Amino acid sequence: DALRGAVIVDRRVMSVRDRDLDAELGAGYGIFAGRSTRKAKLRFSAERARWVADEVWHPKQKGEFDGEGRYVLEFPYSDDRELMMDILKHGPEVEVLSPLELRARVAEAHARAARRNRDDNS
């Protein structure tokens, strides 16, 4: 959705097998490519779980409800930029269980947002 135009070039293109393309681009979450992945583990509140349980975040995701009606979702990712946006949109209704680096980045983003939106920052 960020493309602004295309140009036809007069040279051969490289043919890439679907299997190879999927291995490179399909390994992680979202639009960011990379074969090297980490596993995100998120826990959504019982209220939010009703909707998130029906979403597909990644073809290789695993999800289950816990004993308190919350939804725990695990999936691979290689770059956290898009993932951060999707986690943050759920606000306090999601907790990052792992990895700890992602948890810390989400916590810091929420803290920055809280500082920016305080009444005394006019």
Task: Tell me what you see in this structure.
This protein has helices at residues 18-25, 46-52, 80-88, 100-116, and strands spanning 38-44, 62-65, 71-77, 94-98. The protein is α+β, with helices and mostly antiparallel strands. A four-stranded antiparallel beta sheet has the order 2-3-1-4. The protein is 34% helix and 19% strand. The protein is built from four helices and four strands, in the order H-E-H-E-E-H-E-H.
Produce a short descriptive summary.
The chain has 122 residues and is α+β, with helices and mostly antiparallel strands. 34% of the residues lie in helices and 19% in strands.
Question: In terms of topology, how is this protein built?
Answer:
Elements: H1 18-25, E1 38-44, H2 46-52, E2 62-65, E3 71-77, H3 80-88, E4 94-98, H4 100-116
Antiparallel strand pairs: 1-3, 1-4, 2-3
Helix pairs in contact: 3-4
Descriptive key words:
single chain, 122 residues, alpha+beta
Helix content: 25-40%
How many beta strands in the DSSP annotation?
4
Share in β-strands: 15-25%
Q: Secondary-structure element sequence? A: HEHEEHEH
What's the Cα radius of gyration?
18 Å
What's the overall average pLDDT, rounded?
A: 86
The largest sheet is:
4 strands, antiparallel
Please tell me what the overall shape is: extended
The residue ranges in which pLDDT falls below 50 over 5 or more consecutive positions are: none
In DSSP terms (H or I, runs of 4 or more residues), the helix count works out at 4
Structural class: alpha+beta
The multimeric state of the shown protein is: single chain
Distance between the termini: 34 Å
Strands side by side in the biggest sheet: 2-3-1-4
